[in-house]
Design a protein that fits this description.
- This protein has 11 helices and 21 strands.
- The protein is an alpha+beta fold and about 475 residues long.
- It folds into 2 domains: about 250 residues, 3-Layer(aba) Sandwich (Aminopeptidase), CATH 3.40.630.10; about 210 residues, 2-Layer Sandwich (Alpha-Beta Plaits), CATH 3.30.70.360.
- Strand 20 and strand 21 form a beta hairpin.
- The structure holds zinc ion.
- The site of zinc ion has 5 residues, from helix 3.
Amino acid sequence: MSVLSGIEPKQVFTFFEEICQIPHGSGNVDGISEYLLQFARKRHLFCIQDKLKNIIIIKEASAGYEGEEPYILQGHMDMVAVKEPDCDIDMVKEGLRLRTADGRIYAEGTSLGGDDGIGVAYCLALLDTQEIELPRLEVILTVDEETGMEGATGIDLSMLQGRRMINLDQEEEGIFITSCAGGARVDVVIPVEKAQSSIRTDDMQLMEIKVTGLLGGHSGMEINKGRGNANCLLGEVLRAVGEHMPLRLVNMQGGVADNAIAKESMAVLAMKAGEEKELEAIVKEQESSIRQSLQETDPGVKVVCRTVSGEKVFYTPESIRSALDCLGELPNGVIAMSKDVEGLVETSLNLGILALSDEGLRLQYAVRSSVDCEKEALCRQMTEIAQKAGAQISIRGRYPGWAYRKESPLRDKMVRIYENMYGRKPMLEAIHAGLECGILSGKIEGLDCVCIGPDLYDVHTTGEQMDIASVGRVWEYLLAVLTQ
Ligand SMILES: [Zn+2]
């Protein structure tokens, strides 16, 4: 039974509702991809479905629009599929239960997938229409954006003619995204040495030092908020300890993902009798200086130590000292702010994961920059520091940034039309995180791109909602941009 049938714009919500009936969580896109392929076939539109299940659909220009430059429209077909603990929907096999209330659409017990189902629905409504005359449309619908932009990374766009693209994956009406960061993953492994097993340890005990209580956050969007990184703070605490006593490090682990600011980190040291008191005093002193420096930005931070039990197998204090020195020399956090866009972080990095094992002290960083040569310069700087310490460094998963274009005819046109329609300028925003626009910009020489969308709330959660009136306004606006 249709829930959205009475709601305008009908042509958009009809397709949105159809999409919601097909399970399409990231990694489960075969069904939605097949639906899109059949949609194109039924309408005799040129369509490519690639190996990854990405879809490209092309609709030729209407009569009168043949001379007009084509538009590329883009969205992603996957959604973050999450549900309430008591919800009985099998999100791999079943559709969503759409509901409306107070001018908004939501899905009962689950995420809605307005991100980016509404972007896909706009594209389908434009491809479907016979009444509205349009320039040539080249529609790109990618898979698995939410899990790492695998679809955008793997897609071949060489057959496209368009050089201007409207991405429909933005969550706030009236805010246009015009730049995003590129990135890379940098792994550093600093060698460490096991201490001789002949050393007597029966009179030693183990003490754990833990950095905890931090806010953490997204390593792109929240890197400039002055929050503490537990991995870096733990490195500082241990270096301070090492000035007073040998660092017989048994273990050191922290963080959960390279793109999350580390919230917790721990180390275990083997102590000789009498050293514990001194350790506690140093840790207390370190805690108070860290608390002071983070009092405005991350006030919950704690550094605690306690006795623990376990095997007393440790690494040599000398090798640990030099590993920690290397960790301290490697940069972290904001490296540079943008000169073009006020308040935008241009280049940053985050030590997301730290892990000590026989292989060495492994450090995993997410590096980001909207300027690709700045990202490469930072990687070179890290390589020099790592190599000086005899560490291995590997740089992987590079993806290009989308630098703010000083000249953008598409952006100018979209701003002008927005102003004519609403009597005010849209906000132009640059973000310090990766978007598909960055990856696709790297594939189409000279791509002119703007990212827009209607108001969505609490995306990626079971509380996700979509504003009905906003969907309507963005539809009208999109039509104005495409036809003027
Ligand atoms: Zn999205």
